[in-house]
Amino acid sequence: MTRATIFDLASLTKVTATTTAVAVLFQEGHLTLDSRIADLLNDDAFQGPNGAKAGITVKHCLTHTAGFPPDPNPWYWNTTAFGCPSNSGGGAPPPLDFTCLPAVYDSLMAQTLEAPPGQTYVYSDLSFISLQFAVGAVVLDRGLLPPGPESLCAACAAAAAKTNHNRAVMDIEPVARGVQLSCAFEAFVRNAVLQPSGMQYSAGYLPPPFLWPRTAPTLNDTEYTMRTPIQGEVSDGDAFAMGGIAGHAGLFATLGDVAAFAVGILNAARGQAGNGTFPLNSTTAALFTAVVDSSLSSRALGWDTNSLTVNDFGFDGVCGSGLTESAFLHIGYSGTCICIDPVRDFWSVVLTNRVFNCQGQLCPAGSEDAVKEVYRNFNTAAAAAAQQRMLKWDGEMAHSQNGS
Question: Residue 174 belongs to what domain range?
Answer without folding.
Answer: 6-253
